[in-house]
Amino acid sequence: MQxxxxxxxxxxxxxxxxIAVLIATFTTLNGCVSTQNESPYTYAxxxxxxxxxxxxxxxxxxxxxxxxxVLGAQWCHDSTGLAERFATKEMDLIxxxxxxxxxxxxxxxxxxxxxxxxxxxxIYYATPTVMVVEPKTSALLNRTSxxxxxxxxxxxxxxxxxxxxxxxxxxxxxxxxxxxxxxxDEEEAYNKEQALRLQSAYDKLGPLLALDLQGNTxxxxxxxxxxxxxxxxxxxxTLIKRAELTLDSENGNGVNTTPALRQYNPFSWEHN
Length: 272
Known about the structure:
Layout: H1 2-38, H2 49-63, E1 66-72, H3 77-86, H4 89-98, E2 99-105, H5 113-116, E3 129-134, E4 139-140, H6 157-166, H7 172-180, H8 185-213, H9 221-247
Parallel strand pairs: 1-2
Antiparallel strand pairs: 1-3, 3-4
Helix pairs in contact: 4-6, 8-9
């Protein structure tokens, strides 16, 4: 009898434990779903990412806010690091008050040039790419500082707060140089040519990255990644430097210090 009692009691406790686990699991899953639904700071696949940006820009105009476009991916730690900072109480307050924010998922390095070109920017050179836009004119207000967000996960929250508080405080006069900025015909043609080459590298990397995310790292991925990173980093650095000098009203000494439009060596696969 004692044995039967112990057996029945053990069975009862196991049943209670199973019920508790089910309740805890349901609560956890329900909490995850709720968090994802409530947070606008997620890189979710979309059937029409370009239209998402167009719609967000229209809302920004209607609400007299700035447009904030973030191109990134859930597999990228800097992209998710930025999303985590955005979700803090301090940043969420700033973003909801002053920005219409749209997150664009780039998947495994998919082509999003139709979005960046809308704001006179050739391509995304890093994930995340953060674009602060004056929505009525499509002017890119952070054109000369976009490169910092390639290391978004290492930037402290205090710098996020300072950075994104700056643009809503800009005066009309401060915005004017960015609104009036335009690339020369030579530079525009060069940027398109190099963006096409970079996208071809992304197209090579994309399928390899997809395999890696499935836990099957293919041979040659790391080498190709490093090669592409070197190219895109130098491209963006030159692009930003040229924009800085163009926008610098004090650069009137008559000396041409604008970086040359460099011609790069072929990629390794372009030799074949």
